[in-house]
Amino acid sequence: MRKFCLPIILVLTFCAAGAHAKKLNAPPEAREGLRFMYAGDTARAIELFRKVQQAQPDSPLGYLLEVNALWWKMYCAACEIRWNTIDAWKRGKLPGDDYYFALADKAIVLGDAQLAKAPSAEMNLYVGMGYALKARLHGLREEAKPVARAGVKAREYLLRASQLDPELGDAYTGLGLYNYFVDALSWWAKMLRFFMGIPGGTKKEGTRLLERALRDGDMSVGEARFYYAKNLRNYDQNYARAVELLTPLVEEYPTNPVFQLVLGDLHAKLGHHAQAAKYFLEAKRLASRGAASASGNSPVGDSACSARIQQVAAAALALLPSTAVASALSR
Fold first, then answer.
1. DSSP label at 21?
2. Ramachandran area for residue 261 (φ above 0: left; ψ -120 to 50: alpha; else beta)
3. CATH code reported for the domain at 6-249
């Protein structure tokens, strides 16, 4: 039986705004940094997020964004093929994890301090995001109880955000993914959920909330697309719909090799071998270019990420018919 981690699913991060989105109070540097992050250039993104921290030291936003950029570096470096599926499945503790958790905790403390002064849907959203960021790394490290505790806290704040402002579309990204995931848990995980008092949810409600996030979200639309697509792949084998969700991200951020890998994985599952080969080859090319970058400022400039992408892409190509790879190479 496949094993899927809560933090890979329970995520609240930021991306480009939708046409009918309610705008969050984010400075231009935050939105510019997000574009770099989703393009795969996490180093440049972090530079911009730290400028947000310097300009607004009492706001949790800049710290949360830096943690999110660190997550994508970790996710990329942990990607591998298991159960014939490309994802970041698990890894042990690493030295950089302490900084990640400290930054998330700082954002939570700052957000709670703002909430002590006055209720705010946006601040509840940010604190919920802080707990969700903690949950995902605990899950990557297979720490079940910390994942559950952080996940429940994230849900609590996100629910409060949606109650204070029902039009805050970004709150529905995390809530939708939570509902979807807890309904997809294996029987033993559901037993653990029961004994720990973790609130339940349903895929139907999760799907409804995610569709609303796609329609009404501001900065979490890309996150909703990516993890919604992975849920459909991992739990429902609805590969066609997952391709529909993920393709716009690849088109908007063509330099992100993680998006290329996952989209290639979806096409491979649909039997679209030539298409899969095209995306795997592009991911490998992007990673190779990043590894060769002396400055480290180009997309995929992180050496651990570049090396892992090349390794996974090569392994994925080896699983495809040689004729499909040859056809993709000839284009």
1. P
2. alpha
3. 1.25.40.10
- Contact (CB, 8 A) for 205 and 160: no
Cβ pair 178, 154 in contact under 8 A: yes
Structure tokens at 145: 């109880």
The residue behind tokens 């951020």 is: 253
Band of pLDDT at residue 189, cut at 50, 70 and 90: low
- Using CA atoms, how far residue 270 sits from 87, 108, 230, 303, 328, in Å, is 17, 42, 14, 31, 17
Rg from Cα positions in the chain:
19
Query: Tokens 């991306």 — which residue?
Result: 15
- Residue pair 176/213 in contact by the 8 Å Cβ criterion: yes
Query: What is the longest distance spanned by two Cα atoms in the chain?
Result: 64
Summarised one tens digit per residue, pLDDT across range 197-255 is 566 677 888 899 999 999 999 888 888 999 999 999 999 999 999 999 999 999 999 99
Residues in the chain: 331
First to last CA, the chain: 38
Reported as a single tens digit per residue, the pLDDT across 294-305 is 344 444 558 899
Residues 6+ apart with CB under 8 A from 40: 253, 255, 256, 257, 258, 286, 290, 299, 300
CA distances (Å), 44 to each of 3, 35, 287, in order? Answer: 33, 10, 17
Nearest to 59 by CA among 98, 11, 27: 27
Dihedral of the alpha carbons of 37, 68, 7, 219, in degrees to the nearest 10: -70
The pTM is what?
Answer: 0.87
Residue with tokens 């830096």: 66
Q: Is the pLDDT of residue 188 over 50?
A: no
Nearest-angstrom CA–CA distance, 292 and 300: 10
